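Sharing a chain and its predicted structure for anyone who wants a worked example. Both blocks are below, sequence first, tokens second.
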Amino acid sequence: MLSGRRLDLLNPSPLDIEIEDIAHGLARVARWNGQTHGEEAFSVAQHCNLVEALCRQFSPTLDRRWSLAALLHDAPEYVIGDLISPFKAAVGMDYKAFENKLLEAIHVRFGLPAKLPEKFTGLIKRADRAAAFLEATQLAGFEDGEAARIFSRPRGLKGAGTAKFFNLRPASVQTAQQDYLKRFDQLK
């Protein structure tokens, strides 16, 4: 890692995980394998910020630590990349177990329980699916009906403060990294 840490992927230690490495990596990993509109790719760092904002939209009184968990929900991708869900399924459970082991180490590193309570895991999954729908329709060329069949149309995105969810734009790597670190600092 750029921090000088050496992360053992098969046996990750929370002591070898740094938020700067996570932000650096996630800002450089493209969602949708880069198949999005715009000069820049929509990064996993941007996706994580979007999911965290959606969690707060769906649960306005969400405790800060669960917002942090939402921000970190795809953090393992800073070293293993972003595989699309159908490919993860094709690779098998060993991949998911590997990803979960790394996520658990990340959670511990930042003061969260290794395994999140199901209530918050469900909220993060809901926000992740909503983000996928929004990204698919705004950035990846999906028709609304097609995205609704695959991801479900998100509920709870009407009213004040929701316009930001309907104006997604890819950002530069630097901006995505800075925005991710800024939100992390606000939540930590």
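Comments welcome. The chain has one domain: 14-187.
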